[in-house]
Specification:
WD40_rpt; TCPR2 protein; WD40_repeat_dom_sf; Methylamine Dehydrogenase, Chain H; mainly beta; WD40/YVTN_repeat-like_dom_sf; 18 strands; four-stranded antiparallel beta sheet
Length: 212
């Protein structure tokens, strides 16, 4: 008996003008007009997060059709990576060109959820551009990688408002991808891919030959 083919769903792809029109193309800083470039993107069912060259994070709520803006205090620098997570609270991690990493715990209108915007900073371990971020499913762990090969683990206690960070791995080439699940961190660099077992703090390389 022939299998029944699944129905084909046609989708139309078009520019998100409602999103793009809410982001300025230029800003005025003193007497200078600065062009705003979009530098990082992540999406989930609730939000679209867009990082920019002026250090501003634009967060579009897909349910309320509202755009909100978040930024780093102090130096205005390009955002290089953003990573969203929806667990008990909505979280977004942001990395910059100088190695700054911050986590924003978003406000929710749902009962029992977070009612005040909070920010956690990963203090001063990264010294170069953030190239990858990965969450644990429960939002208690964040891994960040940079273009010098450093990987930092940050333990977050959202109830106590605490973020403790430490260097867990250092590779000789830039980190290009991170993914975490079941106490195993997948790491891809310009030279190799490996599995880092966070409990044993051991490394297992995927494949034997380095990338060319």
């Amino acid at each position: 008996m022939a299998s029944v083919a699944s129905p084909v769903v046609f989708k139309e792809f078009c520019p998100l003008y409602y999103l793009l029109n809410a982001i300025p193309t230029k800003i005025q800083k003193g007497f200078r007009s600065i062009v705003v470039y979009l530098t990082a993107l992540d999406t989930n069912g609730d939000y679209i997060a867009v990082g920019s060259s002026i250090g501003m994070l634009y967060l579009y709520c897909r349910h309320l059709n509202q755009m909100k803006k978040y930024n780093f205090e102090g130096k205005c620098e390009s955002i290089t990576f953003v990573k969203l997570l929806s667990c008990f609270d909505d979280l977004v991690a942001v990395g910059t060109a100088s190695g700054r990493v911050a986590v924003f715990q978003l406000v929710s209108s749902l009962p029992g959820r977070n009612k005040q915007l909070r920010r956690f900073d990963v203090a001063g371990i990264h010294k170069s551009s953030i190239t990858a971020l990965a969450w644990s499913p429960n939002g208690m762990k964040l891994f960040s990688g940079d273009d010098k090969g450093k990987i930092v683990y940050s333990a977050l206690d959202l109830d106590q408002g605490i973020c403790n960070s430490s260097l867990v791995l250092e590779e000789p080439s830039s980190i290009v991808q991170l993914d975490y699940n079941q106490k195993v961190l997948l790491v891809s660099t310009l030279q190799r891919t490996l599995l880092f077992y966070t409990e044993e703090k051991s490394v297992k390389q995927v494949g034997t030959q380095p990338r060319k």
